[in-house]
Amino acid sequence: MSLKEKLVSSFLAFELDTDIMSNVHKIRSQSIKEFEKIGFPNSKDEYWKYTPVKKILNEKLTLFNKKRHLIEFDKVKDFFLNGIESYKLVFIDGIFDPLWSDTTHEEADVCILSSVLEKEKYNDVISKYYNKLVNSKESFSLLNSSFSKEGAYVHVPKNVVLDKPVEIVHINSGGESSLMLQPRSLVVLEKNSKAQIIESHYSLTGKQESSVNNADDFIDPLTNSLTEIHINENSNLDYYKIQNDVETSSIIDNTYIDQKSNSEVSCHTFSFGGNIVRNNLNFYQNGTNVNSILKGVTILGTNQHTDHHTLVHHANPNCESYQEYKGIYDDKSTGVFNGRVVVDKIAQKINAFQQNNNLIIGDNATVNTKPQLEIFADDVKCSHGCTIGQLDKEALFYLKARGINENDAKGLLTYAFANNVLENVKMQVLKSKIKKIIADKIGVNLGFEL
Question: What is the C-alpha to C-alpha distance for residues 426 and 419, in angstroms, rounded to an integer?
């Protein structure tokens, strides 16, 4: 039985474990029908031809946890931000962990999605926002809509500035083989509100270190994540994604963002680990004077693969978007960037910038990059570009001539290449954490305070 057939047949068992009278039952049923029609993407699909998704679609993958796994805090404490207070939503193997979480219903709702889907008082919010942005032709999004029942819910009322950032932390314990996780998040900022959210994915172990009895039979998890974000008028969101997983775990991440007039969203994606990572980031500008900022840093080695697909759809005039993605690739790693900007005919006075720069360190590393503009308006300012190269030999010689050894010189140049993407990170403690991860990935002691 193929994985597709297994998932479709598992839907009945999943329904028995959920409330078929809930608001989302119809969405789930329709989604699994659509998924059954189109199945998984393959190399013949234009937007998937550089990502070998078939490699991670093992027929032994399962949707159901055998048991709940407990983890000692000392093993995961570094996954959280240190030195600041935050709201926390922690999920272990897809199951909410209340012990390490800190939720609220006071100035805003920061809680788990399952409780919202089950309570009548949230019916209006769910009817208005849930599953309204999802691409009905994207198979992994359909799969998530079919099976997701747990994740993060953040709702900030109008005129509220959230007093603490929100950390959404997904942890795979490594205590169970073959899990296919379906986390789902819904974020809503009402008029004149503001929030900061950090979403991260980690695994404690991979196949070699797993506690499962027969490690040879261990199949690393596949996370199929979906996030819907609704930003209403005059609101502001800083969203950060940290993907620093073990080399054998994979993630498919679909994020959909709807922006209304005079809003600003800044989304930073930091991809530092994982087997196959696919990020589909979609911005829909449904208002005037909207600003969308997309930035990313990717650092890979071994046989790792990361694919960034972005879409910014300018549907109204007087808006801006800014994309800057940088990648550093060593060994036999592979990077993909496909940035798409669409400007509708009525969307005049648009300013859109898109840049993808890549640094090849390994002789066998590969990069496929495709900045893409589709412009149907005539009064716009749009530009795009990409570069693929190696370290500047003259700069390297300059540093070595001043007594810096070759390894440290390469590290400094590589660090400087990636560092400017961090300029818009507004949380100093997060910026320091990311800088340390970058320094560790590059393998150099910078010798100064980060």
Answer: 14
